[in-house]
Amino acid sequence: MKSEKRNLAVLALIATCAIGCEHARSDVNKYTVNVRFVSDATGQTMENVSAIVGGDKFWWPSFSANEEKVATLFSSKAAANNVTLLYSIGGKQRSWEGAALAQHDVNYEIKLTVNAAGVVSERTCPSTCR
User: How far apart are CA 111 and CA 10, in angstroms?
Assistant: First the structure.
């Protein structure tokens, strides 16, 4: 009898956590950020790269020429959720900031391409880019 009560208590605790954990994530959006560094120069790198959305941030130490990396960031639906990219090419620190994403109940995929001169191009899609 005691083990049945203990099992019920454990199941109740797991169910409570599962409900609470899901509720805690219901106020955030997911942002899949793809960063690609494009360069014809052998050996050129992009360094100290940070992708930031709202209060979430991901950092990579470096990108080789023509390398792509992905990070998944989460931010509050109520925040001003634009993407910021901080990076360095040839020792020069640079930054890029995207426009605010208007829809707050949508997950986004953001594709950023940085060329050898440090210019960023962006493609943003609700859900996933095809």
Answer: 43
| Burial (CB count within 10 angstroms: exposed 0-12, middle 13-18, buried 19+), residue 33 | buried
The 3 state secondary structure assigned to 35-71 is: EEEECCCCCCEEEEEEEEECCEEEEEEEEECCEEEEE
Residue 60: pLDDT band (50, 70, 90) is very high
How crowded is residue 99: how many other Cβ atoms within 10 Å of its Cβ?
A: 9
Euclidean distance between CA atoms 46 and 57, whole angstroms: 17
* Alpha carbon distance 25, 60 (integer Å): 25
What's the order of all strands across the beta sheet hosting 28-38?
A: 67-76, 28-38, 108-115, 120-126
CA separation for the pair 77, 29 (Å, rounded): 6
Whats the size of the chain, residue-wise? 130
Q: Specify the residue for token string 């990070």.
A: 71
User: Which tens digit of pLDDT belongs to each residue from 80-125?
Assistant: 788 999 999 999 999 999 988 867 678 899 999 999 999 999 999 8
Distance CA 33, CA 117 (A): 21
